[in-house]
Amino acid sequence: MPKDARIDAYVAKSADFARPILEFVRAAVHAGCPEVVETIKWGHPTFEHQGPLCGMAAFKQHCRIGFSKGALLNDGGLEKLDANLGAYMHVTSVKDLPSRAVLSRTVRQAAALNEQGVRAPRPQRTPRPEPAVPDDLMAALKKNRDALVAFEEFAPSHRREYIEWITGAKREETRQKRLQTAIAQIAEGKPQNWKYMK
């Protein structure tokens, strides 16, 4: 496949230490997947084959090489690959990477995962605990049945928005104004940031 001139320019303007690393990775990617398509995404060289394959980036003092399905790669010789991120982090020399043969094999494995339609696992997110409802908000909600019912039916994120908005007031008079506004909006079933919702 033809090479993208934007990647040539990216490599050329990179720091002296980074150029050999980027050229090494680019050659290994093409050796591992001759059908790869080069592009620039998020301002960095990216390689695609039936979906995102891998990318590389040069920074002031290091490079980073990442695989979109890095967590699924299990080829031998990947001891330096951060399995959680699917990336080689803080690469300052070609010596920080596996051999070209190992890197090309890794690219082939990543390309095969794309061809098979395998999806990368999503990281497990731990939900934030719901904050306690302040006494003054709870008292105001109990005085307005519509507001209390709506507040209890809100998603935890919407309840959190109101709680944080009210408790974030620095002055008591601001807190009271926010409390009045909150009760009126909640009674109408509106989340705190309803103005910005489509």
SSE blueprint and pairings:
Layout: H1 5-13, H2 18-32, E1 37-41, E2 44-48, E3 52-58, E4 63-67, E5 87-91, H3 100-115, H4 135-143, H5 145-153, H6 156-167, H7 172-187
Helix pairs in contact: 2-3, 4-5, 5-7, 6-7
Question: Percent helix among the residues?
Answer: 40-55%
Measured between the Cα atoms of the first and last residue, the distance is 43 Å
As for the number of domains, it is 2
Structural class: alpha+beta
What is the spatial order of strands in the main beta sheet? 1-2-3-4-5
Give the biggest sheet. 5 strands, antiparallel
**Discrete helix count:** 7
What is the radius of gyration? 26 Å
Low-confidence stretches: none
Q: Beta fraction of the residues? A: 5-15%
Summarize the structure.
The protein is built from seven helices and five strands. With 198 residues, it is α+β, with helices and mostly antiparallel strands.
Describe this structure in words.
With about 200 residues, this protein is α+β, with helices and mostly antiparallel strands. The chain folds into two domains: about 5-115, Aspartate Aminotransferase, domain 1 (Alpha-Beta Complex), CATH 3.90.1150; about 135-195, no CATH class. The chain contains seven helices and five strands. It has helices spanning about 5-15, 20-30, 100-115, 135-145, 145-155, 155-165, 170-185; strands at about 35-40, 45-50, 50-60, 65, 85-90. The chain has a five-stranded antiparallel beta sheet with strand order 1-2-3-4-5. A hairpin with a 2-residue loop joins strand 1 (about 35-40) and strand 2. Helix 4 packs across helix 5 and helix 5 (about 145-155) crosses helix 7 (about 170-185). The model has no long low-confidence stretch (mean pLDDT about 90).
